[in-house]
């Protein structure tokens, strides 16, 4: 049993995670049409991961006896700039998600929702990894600079990412 306030806040996070999935799906399509198939793969895997994040919140709310009420998902952008600017946007978005997870954690502590605090711990760790991965890719793209060969090398690297369903 969790408080109504906590349940509403967790429901809101389902929307954030689904928007993340939508944003990365849109980026995957854009990079496919820019002939950057490695990047398209990376964003597709990222989108799939975000769906599993949304599902984790959904499952947790159900396990707490909450009726999940889904809200509309905002439309993501459809046009993007360079690959570097796309990963900079990704990092900014993930920093926004980190803040939303931290806000949920603060609420859980304030409301003495200990089960929720333990549930959220997985996301705290996940955000460290997500931000770190983005920073690595940004660093590689900056090193590549204007070199097409360098960009192609990063693109090949991004092609190796494989989706694995996270277990909590
Ligand atoms: Fe990108 O970690 Fe969920 O949103």
Describe the structure.
It is a single chain. The chain has a single domain (4-158), classed as Ferritin, CATH 1.20.1260.10. It has five helices and no strands. The chain has helices at residues 4-33, 37-63, 83-110, 114-144, 148-158. Helix 4 runs antiparallel to helix 5. The longest helix has 31 residues, at 114-144. The mean pLDDT is 97. Hydroxy diiron-OXO moiety binds at residues 17, 20, 50, 53, 94, 97, 126, 130.
Tally of DSSP helical segments: 5
**What structural class results from the helix and strand content?**
mainly alpha
CATH superfamily: Ferritin, core subunit, four-helix bundle
Topology, number of strands: 0
**General shape:** elongated
Strand composition percent: under 5%
Quaternary class: single chain
Q: Compute the CA-based radius of gyration.
A: 17 Å
How confident overall, as mean pLDDT?
Answer: 97
CA-CA gap between termini: 20 Å
CATH class: Mainly Alpha
Describe the biggest sheet?
none
**Unreliable residue stretches:** none
Keywords:
mainly alpha; 168 residues; elongated; Ferritin
Short description:
The protein has 168 residues and is mainly alpha-helical. It has helices at 4-33, 37-63, 83-110, 114-144, 148-158. The chain has a single domain (4-158), classed as Up-down Bundle (Ferritin).
